[in-house]
Amino acid sequence: MIWRLGYTLLLWGALPAILVRLYWRSFREPAYLERFGERFGHYAPGDTRAPGRRLIWVHAVSLGEMHAAKPLVERLITQYPQHEILLTQMTASGCEAAQKLFAGRAQIVWLPYDYPFAVRAFLERFRPDLGILIETEVWFNLIAACRDKGVPLLLANARLSERSASGYLKIAPLARPAFASFAAIAAQSEDDARRFAALGALSVIVTGNLKFDVEAAPGSEQLAREFRARFGQQKVFLAASTRDGEEALILDALEAQPLRDTLTAIVPRHPQRFADVAALFEQRGLAYARRSANCQVPGECRYFLGDSVGELAAYYRAADVAFVGGSLLDYGAQNLIEACAAGIPVLIGPSVYNFAMAAEQAKQAGAARSAGDAAGILMEASRLLEDPAARRSMGDAGLSFCATHRGAADRMAGIAARLLGGAPCQLD
pTM for the complete prediction? Predict the structure, then answer.
């Protein structure tokens, strides 16, 4: 209790910085200031639980988590038509994804910040029968409030890197009661399960990764064909979901080692960085085309900026070779499973702690290759672009790799069913 009090005091101390950051982000993404009161537990009169109906609440903090949650949410909607589904997020991109995927089929609101009064107001307003937090969403006051109000919590698609586990161990008096409060934790791997158990989790079940169950957005194949038509006859090297600093490394490597007869398409991970990457092209005097221009790529153009949201599956299917960002610098990598599912060769850098198991399995399956820096990535890309047979082999391996690991959504839906039924969730 003392540790949680200290945590709450720190949150109050951080409130001015939180508000400034929210306001700053709203310049590029105005949605951050929409329904501002929800950030503190104040909801519109219509945002509530309908009388006589049970409610399942799913929290997916941002864009990646919302897309990962899709197969599980779809199963819950199908299996519990008499229940209401509530989806919460913390980021504008996550909220936009929720609206695109589930508008009209679920209530969609912001999750409040982790202040005791705000999370209590949220729980009193919606009174969920079950809460499902996607991946490693550990908010100490929220978890404590759910425990006090008897709301069972499932931590789904849960992952915990060695680095994160070490961080939680440093605040063990705060972290251990939180992990012990989960009714169940559906871990992605045995290693994740072991780390959660070491932090005090009582019911940890290895279910696999939801991202293997995610299907490409409807229309992705058609959009991919449109992209290929715009790209022309040249081959396409895709740098997908790149993070701050990685684009410069890739452009430096391309300057030293150009890819022959190849268009390099860069799709930044976060939409608020689209303008920054465009400025990077312009500062270097590089001619480039933009997705937002919606036009043919000139034949002499060697760069393309994918400044759009929700089209990554189409970019993968339109590419010949893909590098998955967040892995060149110390970000832990973005979702390489989506790239493997597109049936193309996948390249990753050295930082993969967010997808350590999937990265190792993909390499073992022959679906992915890794390199230690941008020059190594470009060297591997060059080899593959000159070897159609190797590209086909890696693409087929990626499809088989993904097919082998599907089924996590069904296993997690089974855990949710037991929790909703009041039965204890036993270890498998």
Answer: 0.87
